[in-house]
Design a protein that fits this description.
The chain is of the alpha+beta class. It contains 7 helices and 22 strands. The radius of gyration is 23 Å and the shape is globular. Bound molecules: fe (iii) ion and calcium ion.
Length: 515
């Protein structure tokens, strides 16, 4: 522990000791006193603007059992400073942590300076939180370089967050998280770390305790405390492979709707996002985040509005194209009409030099048939199950300046050329897709694989790697460089990290190539 961290820790222990033991009798109204640290879930920030950022924490002195805060509102003081010692304070305020939001707070700080690092801290019941570091976005018009990482899929049971420890050590402006922040249900597969609570009922209490256990991880806390995050979700924030666009009036969907409302509520309570509070089973999560004129991130929600997943095709149901008939049905949608119109109009009118579509599931076509004489496109949970929406986006990407699709979900790294017509091998790429591996999901690879041979079956696929890790990107006006970062293990609490491959996309290039 360095001296600064020691001083912070000492001050916090002293503050806790000064509170003394709590009596067992009912507490009168008044300031809350905590007999345990209420900041065990750490601090976070997100969705940076040129003049602001969202600060987050949740009071939870008993994180694995509902939080442990009395059932009333608690004042949480916050402050933002221009120095790590928190002397040069520029903004302060008090937020109300309410029981309805599990005593979480989202402070949307404004009137900050653009492109500047800030530090922040909370205080509740006389106890101070750890200090977080964040950064505002550059002003409109600026073309400043941007360093970011993107990551996804952090199954707690499958491994330690050695990748988050490595992210926290990087020199970044922002982190994008593309889904599967938690995994619902009981631990399955090769279990490295157990969940505190056995049993699962899809209740709000279950989701809250699950997020809380994930957030007790010190490496995840360090990653949040080091940089602002931009977060979207995938399926496991609610349930494996769920589709949100189901008929609300159908009584058979009542349980699914209730589970979704609980999952969305807990997601909101634990994420540093600038979005409205969820209303039952609805949370408007799709949004843009811009970094001057250099880059805009179109952050998608590929779950809430998607048509129900097509049933796995039997071979006789497959069309000559290799797709299930339902996958190419133009009535089916991945994004929903409103989000799709928003995305297409946003890309069409964009003045950004680079345009990132940041979303959760694989966008490219990939033939997974083992039979050389057949073509099988069976990715029913990713964009291969929603071909009509994919084509509308591809057609717009072809007309968009420097488009790049960022994805997660596959638990391996892929680089693709996105073709306007995947069935035509001579069709030019309209954009690159960079798909990032998991932080921990599926654990250490059984056989590590970084050697890659391109096959005639999938000429659009340019790279594959199955390590755990994340993707680190350096964006300049003239070039995007993506480093695929791999950790040596997730079976142990500490690991080394290395770059297995680097790809670059040049200004106007529309294709990623080995750097
Ligand atoms: Fe996943
Ligand atoms: Ca997923």
């Amino acid at each position: 522990m360095d001296r600064r961290a020691f001083l912070i820790a000492s001050a916090r222990i002293a503050a806790l000791a000064a509170l003394g033991p709590l009596g067992s009798c009912a507490q009168p109204a008044g300031p809350v006193k905590f007999d345990r640290d209420p900041f065990m879930l750490g601090v976070a920030s997100g969705d940076p603007l040129p003049d602001g950022v969202v600060l987050w924490t949740r009071l939870a002195p008993d994180p694995l059992h509902g939080g442990g805060v009395p059932n009333r509102s608690v004042d949480v003081d916050w402050l933002v400073a221009r120095d790590e010692a928190m002397k040069d304070v520029v903004r302060t305020g008090t937020a109300s942590a309410i029981p309805d939001l599990a005593h979480s707070v989202h402070v949307d700080v404004s009137d900050l300076e653009p492109n500047r690092v800030y530090w922040y801290r909370f205080r509740a019941g006389g106890v101070e939180s750890p200090i977080g570091r964040t950064r505002t976005a550059p002003p409109a018009g600026a073309l400043l370089n941007l360093r970011f990482a993107f990551a996804s899929c952090q199954n707690y049971a499958h491994g330690y967050y050695t990748a988050h420890a490595a992210i926290a050590r990087e020199d970044l402006h922002v982190v994008l998280f593309l889904g599967d922040y938690i995994y619902e249900g009981n631990a399955r597969g090769d279990i490295v770390r157990q969940y505190a609570k056995r049993g699962w009922s899809f209740s709000l209490a279950d989701y809250r305790d699950r997020y809380a256990q994930y957030r007790t991880d010190k490496d995840l806390q360090a990653s949040h405390a080091a940089f602002p995050w931009i977060v979207t979700w995938d399926d496991h924030e609610v349930e494996n492979n769920y589709a949100g666009g189901i008929d609300r009036e159908d009584p058979r969907n009542k349980q699914a709707i209730a589970e979704r409302a609980a999952g969305y509520q807990a997601f909101y309570e634990h994420m540093p996002v600038r979005v409205p509070r969820p209303q039952g089973p609805e949370l408007k999560l799709y949004r843009t985040v811009s970094f001057g004129d250099l880059a805009t991130f179109y952050v998608l929600d590929t779950r809430q509005y998607r048509s129900p997943e097509v049933a796995l095709c039997r071979e006789q149901d497959e069309t000559p194209s290799g797709y299930c008939p339902a996958s190419v049905d133009p009535k089916r949608t991945m994004l929903g009409a409103e989000q799709r119109a928003w995305l297409l109009a946003g890309l069409a009118g964009s003045t950004s030099h680079w345009n990132f579509v940041a979303q959760s599931v694989r966008f490219a076509q990939q033939d997974s048939s083992a039979d050389a004489g057949k073509r099988v496109f069976d990715g029913v949970d990713n964009w291969m199950g929603y071909v009509a929406d994919r084509q509308l986006v591809l057609d717009q990407l072809a007309r968009t300046k420097n488009p790049v699709v960022l994805s997660g979900d596959s638990h391996v790294n892929f680089v693709y050329d996105l073709k306007r017509d995947f069935s035509d091998p001579t069709s030019p790429a309209v954009a690159a897709e960079l798909l990032g591996t998991s932080i921990s999901s599926e654990g250490d690879p059984f056989i590590p694989q970084t050697e890659f041979t391109q096959s005639a079956r999938n000429p659009q696929l340019k790279f594959f790697d199955n390590h755990r890790g994340y993707v680190r990107c350096t964006l300049e006006p003239g070039r995007l460089t993506a480093d695929f970062r791999a950790v040596s293990t997730v079976r142990a609490p500490t690991a080394t990290v290395s770059t297995t491959a680097s790809f670059a996309i040049d200004d106007g290039g529309r294709s990623a190539n080995r750097a």
